[in-house]
Amino acid sequence: MIHIFLVSLFLLFSPPSQAHTADADSIALYLERAQKLTTNQSATGLRYAHQAREAALHSHDSASLARSYTILGIIYRYQDHYDSAMLYNTQALSIFEQRKDSMGIAEAWLNLGSVYHSRADYAMALEYYFRALQVFQTFNNTAKVARTHAGIGIVYRHKGNHEQALVHQLTALHLRENTGNNSPWAHSWRNIGGIYESQGRIDTAIACYHKALSIFEDVADTQGVAVTLSSLGSAYNRSGAYSKARAVQSRAIALYEQLDDKRGLAMLYTAIAQRFFGERNSRKSLEYATKARDIAESIGALSEQKEAYLHISEALRAQGSTDAAFVAFRRYTVLKDSIFNIQNEQIVAALQMRYEVVEKNRQLTTLRYERDINALSANNLRMMLLGATLFFCVVIGFIANSYRLRKKSEEALRQQNTTILAQREQLEQETRKTARANELLQETNTLLELTNADLVELDNEKNEFLGIAAHDLKNPLTSIMLAAELIAKFLQQNNTDKVLQSVRSITVSAKQMLHIVANLLDINRIEHHAYELDMQPIQGIELFAMAEKYVHIAAEKSITLHIDCGDTPPPLLADRSTLEQIMDNLLSNAVKYSPHDKHVFVRVREHTSTVRVEVQDQGPGISPDDMTKLFGKFARLSARPTGGEHSTGLGLSIVKKMVEAMNGKVWCESELGKGATFIVELLKA
Question: Is 605 in a helix, a strand, or coil?
Answer without folding.
Answer: strand
